[in-house]
Amino acid sequence: MSEYPLNLKSRWGWPLLLAITIFNASGQSAVAVPDIVSIDKVGHFGVFGLLGVLIARTQSSRRWWLGWVLASIYGIIDEWHQSFKPGRSVEFADWIADTMGAALAVTLYARWTFFREVLERKIWNRRIPPVAKPDEKTSD
Fold it and tell me: Is 59 among the domain residues?
């Protein structure tokens, strides 16, 4: 697992942002989804897989499994939150999709080096131009 020199607050930024996004989405009375049978389960699987990996990245390599556990617990909380919204219901199958998505993604992240390296690869490498010394003249 990658160990990067960021403080605890900045490590948790992305998982918390995604958790807030999930909370806001599940708080809507209706969610726009295509009319395909069980397509929402695919969404649950993917989103909670991402949440699990983002949480796993905050942990040491020995505690990778916390991504799986915490994403699953958040899935239960998400379903409970939906129970208070008109037009929404609690579905056990949604929680199973949340847990299985987190389990697969976190396990791949922890055990498969290629998968982890692809996810940790920088999207772009920006070069910072060197600063000219004050006594040097630049030509225009």
Answer: yes
Indicate the angle between helix axes 65-82 and 92-111, nearest 10 degrees. Answer: 160
Count of structural domains, the chain: 1
pTM of the model: 0.75
Can you tell me which residue has the tokens 């989103």?
47
Neighbour count for residue 95 (Cβ, 10 Å): 19
For residue 133, the one-letter residue type is K
- The pLDDT tens digits of the residues spanning 65-93 come to 999 999 999 999 999 988 888 878 888 99
In a domain, 26, yes or no: no
| Digit-coded pLDDT (tens) for 7-54 | 666 788 889 999 999 998 887 877 666 667 678 899 999 999 999 999
Question: CB-side exposure of 127: number of CA atoms within 13 Å?
Answer: 3
In a domain, 7, yes or no: no
Give a yes or no: residue 131 inside a domain: no
Task: Return d(Cα 133, Cα 111) in angstroms, integer.
Answer: 47
